[in-house]
Amino acid sequence: MKAKRGTCIDCGPEAAENYIIAGRCQYHYWQYRAQVKRESPRCKAAAAEEKKVKDALTTWFNLKIQLRPDRCENCGIHLRESMTINPRAIICHVLPKAENKFPEVATHILNCWYGCNECHYQYDNCAPIDRSLMPVWPIVINRFNKIILSLPEDKINRAKTYLNL
Description:
The protein is mainly alpha-helical. The protein folds into 2 domains: 4-38, no CATH class; 55-162, no CATH class. It contains 7 helices and 4 strands. It has helices spanning 26-38, 41-66, 80-85, 117-125, 128-131, 137-147, 153-162, and strands spanning 4-6, 18-20, 91-92, 113-114. The strands form 2 sheets. Strands 1-2 form a two-stranded antiparallel sheet. The longest helix has 26 residues, at 41-66. The protein is elongated. The relative contact order is 0.09.
């Protein structure tokens, strides 16, 4: 197939002749395709669902921030300093909220504990066996035992592996 040359319908008549795709230069063609894709029913439905999930998480985080204790549940330091960076960072999920992890319980009322930035980072990034050595562990297990009832059957073993149970 031979490449077509012409003037882009979006660049205007004064634009230089260029290779065109469906009457548009490459730049405007891909902008047009992105717009068509955004306006497709499938994309609109996905965006609406994504907004619904994001709004639910925002509401959940705002509620949890209001209910926060003054001190980290793991090390006991004051949470004030950690909140100045990002207020949401003090809220640690017992089970991760990521879509490929446990989104079913992302906004579960008991799927959290409160920690400073260091403790939150340690909990999220350490090996499961190290997580069980943290002082907050009894709180985590207590809340997990209530959260587990909200998990689908196929995710219960994954959750137990995540917490090294």
